[in-house]
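Give me structure tokens for this 304-residue protein.
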Amino acid sequence: MNRNDLRRLDLNLLIVFETLMHERSVTRAAEKLFLGQPAISAALSRLRNLFDDPLFVRTGRSMEPTARAQEIFALLSPALDSISTAVSRASEFDPATSTAVFRVGLSDDVEFALLPALLRRLRSEAPNVVLVVRRANYLLMPNLLASGEISVGVSYTEELPANAKRKTLRRSKPKLLRADSIPGKLGLDEYCARPHAMVSFAGDLNGFIDDQLARFERTRKVVLAVPQFNGLGTLLAGTDLIAVVPDYTAAALTAAGGLRAEDLPFESDSFEMSMAWRGAQDNDPAERWLRSRIQMFFGDPDSL
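Here you go.
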């Protein structure tokens, strides 16, 4: 196909194809694109004719892509990113008048401890924009970015989509939280003996602190696991429970009173909090503005 032949191509078909590759379902693709299922089925039929390939084969409840579909997707995805970037560069962004909808993914600790300050700044600079926050972590972030459900996310991250970009915002140290009135800092023996509370998105009873303790052939006893940081202070109040949280989360929790934070009784590794975003929106003026504000209020230049 030469460039003149592209005039016969409906770009919307390629968007449908990309969405089907992510969702593997006509129903979910229709929901994501706000179209009816018959419209998606008709588009798939046209795509099959265009590429002379079945593209997707039904396997149980899922639609598995053919080898040809995988090949097309590998070439198509960066091309669509380039088109999106070219179009976005032609637009301008004025935060004072914009009505843009920003969809961001935040881990629970970031949402609880750092989002309030960012939100106040956004309300001041861009009172008409809409901020949609999705819960994200290192497990959820790749799919949320790849599917376009969010344009930017902030959390601890590992694997990301091939076209995603990443920037380290801060390197944080864990802090110990306690609500008791016993003077002095906890030693290692008492730290291991005390009952622990932890925040666990998946309900696990082990975390990175347990890996750190294993270096000293020590363990701790977790007696409470909750899915979010909001309310952790109330749960610790009046008990001998202790918890380990990121330093920026500790600052937010102790600010409400009733808790105090201290260093761990052993040397612990720091961990990185990163901002990741879709490569297709790297040069979008609105997204660049949002990322600059996220870096301003979530970042910690002194730790970098």
